[in-house]
Design goal:
280 residues, alpha/beta, TIM Barrel, eight-stranded parallel barrel, 8 strands, 15% strand, globular, binds flavin-adenine dinucleotide
Length: 280
């Protein structure tokens, strides 16, 4: 069992004043779990550049340690570095560095910049100032050439200077443990924190998971489908399933948990409470 597990919460960049207000309330509720940071996503292709930046700066100013997600999107090196510098000027010292995806509807002619190159650029510019988190895929990234090649590229992100990986969500603990073992065999010794997606909506989950290559086990798919018309039943069932997943992960030595909150505090807070995570 991991002592003092790393805890972090992820938000997407709320655009409306109501959405921002709700996020602040969400932070207030989750803050008792003393997270290391609240991360804020970066829209595909940099489409939320300003919204993400504004939100991150606001949260940081309110005393919530923030970690912006960042990718090249369609930006130049100079634009990326200027954004990185503005985070540094605001006292932000954690980033989640990603390749990102192209926004839907944009063709494949544009070349995305891989995360290892972004990590290298940030290190070249800012030395050791930032703690850099990167993405990892226990069930393997959908565009990976092979299982081993995906691990090889994760290793390259660490070699470029990443400090920690946060995984895509999954519901099969063995996939995570096997992945971590395979990573260790290649010399990766940095923390790989499981990303945890609470189960709240059947249709959204299926759509999301098909897009990002996360597997919903057949038994779980059927159980959720049966509850898809009764959100309370589905959420309660989902809390049970995800609590035992998290228990297994922590008992098996996972270094912490990163919750995909979907900007809602209730499910992540219930999971933290069920797990008996320390409070402030
Ligand atoms: P990379 O590490 O660059 O890997 C992408 C693919 O290319 C993999 O198949 C890998 O095997 C291969 N590869 C890696 N490096 C190289 C290389 N140098 N040369 C050739 N092949 C290579 N998306 C967003 O748009 N915004 C977000 O805020 C966001 N947040 C996320 C947070 C987490 C924790 C995770 C796990 C994912 C997030 N994503 C986000 C999704 C992510 O951007 C996509 O999964 C994207 O397709 C891959 O990003 P990456 O940084 O893992 O890419």
């Amino acid at each position: 069992m991991t002592n003092n597990p790393h805890i972090s919460f992820e938000f997407f960049a709320a655009k409306t004043p109501e959405g921002k207000q709700k996020l602040r309330a969400t932070c207030e509720k989750l803050d008792i779990y003393n997270p290391e940071f609240y991360s804020v996503t970066y829209g595909a292709g940099g489409s939320t550049r300003d919204t993400t930046k504004d939100l991150v700066l606001d949260l940081q100013q309110d005393g919530y340690q923030s970690a912006p997600h960042l990718s090249f999107g369609g930006d130049s090196r100079e634009d990326v570095l200027s954004l990185v510098q503005s985070y540094r000027d605001a006292g932000i010292n954690k980033l989640v560095a990603l390749r990102g995806d192209l926004p839907s509807g944009i063709g494949g002619s544009k070349q995305l910049v891989h995360a290892n190159e972004l990590v290298a650029l940030i290190r070249e510019h800012s030395g050791d100032y930032f703690e850099i988190n990167v993405g990892a895929y226990p069930e393997i990234h959908p565009e990976a050439e092979s299982y081993s090649k995906d691990i090889y590229w994760l290793g390259e992100k660490f070699k470029a200077g990443a400090d920690r990986a946060i995984t895509q969500y999954f519901y099969n603990a063995d996939a995570y443990f096997r992945f971590v073992d395979e990573c260790a065999k290649t010399g990766i010794d940095k923390p790989i924190v499981p990303g945890i997606m609470p189960l709240t909506n059947y249709h959204n989950l299926i759509r999301f998971s098909d897009n990002c290559g996360a597997e919903i086990p057949r038994w779980l798919r059927w159980q959720l489908k049966e509850r898809s018309d009764n959100s309370e039943d589905l959420v309660n069932y989902g809390i049970d399933v995800v609590t035992s997943l998290c228990e297994k992960l922590l008992a098996g030595g996972a270094p912490g948990l990163h919750f995909y909150t979907m900007n809602q505090w209730q499910n992540s807070a219930t999971l933290c409470s069920n797990l008996g995570l320390p409070t402030k």
